[in-house]
Input
Amino acid sequence: TPPISPFAIQFDAEAATLTPEGPTLTRRMSALDGLFKDHDAWQQAVADGDPVVYSVQSTPVPEVDRELPQSITSIEAGTTAGEFWMTKGHQHPNHQGEIYLALHGTGGLLMFDGTETQWIDMVPGTIGYIPPGWAHRSVNVGADPYKFLAVYPGGAGHDYGWVLEHGMGKRAYAVTDGFELREF
Ligand code: M6P
Ligand code: ZN
Output
């Protein structure tokens, strides 16, 4: 990766956009294999059109050591067998911190260190801090898309196998007056 020069990023909190744009990642339901509690319901959702669950819009800052990439993630509103739509979730192999700033909608930042679970309610203006060593997943617990800005060390990496192996401690389910966390 060639060195990157200083540059300005236009951040539109209202529109939840970053300009200039780098790569966009789109994750459909099929990409969340093994993550929802109800595997049959997940499979049915994949068969029923494999909807987009979330997308991640990055800036051109590369994910390499010592750089500081940013992205905006938009999670669609929805549930699968009552479980709110969410990101895959990951652990940083290099155990580095990260921050999330909520921009739109109603979400949650679920963190798990292998023993303890933590949940931060995320509404526009909330910064959720993810300490080193805590796997993290974002959940949309509202009826609108949930959008947040992430800023993270470029060398942190994404370990998705850790979440498949250890889980995330809790899951967020839709109930009449919002959401409820249940044992994994
Ligand atoms: C945030 C950041 C990214 C991450 C994305 C989606 O934007 O934490 O590093 O890739 O959320 O989450 P996941 O990688 O778990 O699918
Ligand atoms: Zn991360």
In short: Helices lie at 39-47, 161-166. DSSP finds two helices and 15 strands in the chain. The radius of gyration is 16 Å.
